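Here is one chain, start to finish.
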Amino acid sequence: MPTLYHYTSLDALVSIVSHGTLRFTDYRYLNDSSEFSLFQSYSRVISEQFDKYLSVLPIVNADLPIRPCYVCDNYASRYFGEASRRLEVANFLGVFCLSRAKDDLSQWRAYAGNPVGVALQFDRERLGAIALPYGYQIVDCTYSIEDFRSYHELQNRLESLSADVYCDTPETIAEVDGAWLLTLAGSLKDEAFISEKEVRVVSPPLDFGGRANLAGSVQYRVGRYSLIPYLDQRFSEDTSATADVPSGVLRALIGVTVGPTREPQLARAAIQSMLERAGLAEAADHVEFSNTPYRPM
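Its structure:
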């Protein structure tokens, strides 16, 4: 089973276990300041390629009341332009960050607190199954357009639209595809972060104040340079959970890695005790030590 790691502080570990929630931060307030501009750059390249492709297709049935999509001027550019507009006006697009990298020094330094933090181990398949009914998607981050994993999906989507004589305008189609396109936008990062091997759980675009299927609403915490919007999502109102079958997202927690610390045995014992008291026997049985010889100074 693929395992994902969430590097975080001891405070966050206690909060996740105590409340069964994951914290989603608005993507505009993450440490990669280029995220929105990357989506615009990628879509511009793809648009130019497809508009050139569509411009040379033969016009068939151009006299029909509804013209083929590829007859529309700058079809792909208009499609992505509407997607960018929707991204700009989305009040909240939240992400919960994980990594495929186990015991990674750079992430112990950046995200795991000082002097000691943890890496929560999540089963990717379980986490996806828990989040999907709420409209959340798990996506692997892309660090260059050459590795853009959804490029072919977009290619196929645009080609199918161009062949549909009766489809709507590109702006209308982009509105229909809105949630999918915003999820793609939330998966793009600058190549400077490639060593993090990031995977994200991406929320649907939300209005401030939340939606009916959310356990809470958007809140704010103090950052270094501004207030930061976030959402604590529980993914479950399950009242049938037992000591053997935890509720919600905690079903996907399968272990904890104790970060570099001067007191590893004490740290491990306390974490195991907390997990056992919370009914998380599987995770408690898989509390391990980091092998990274890092010493916070």
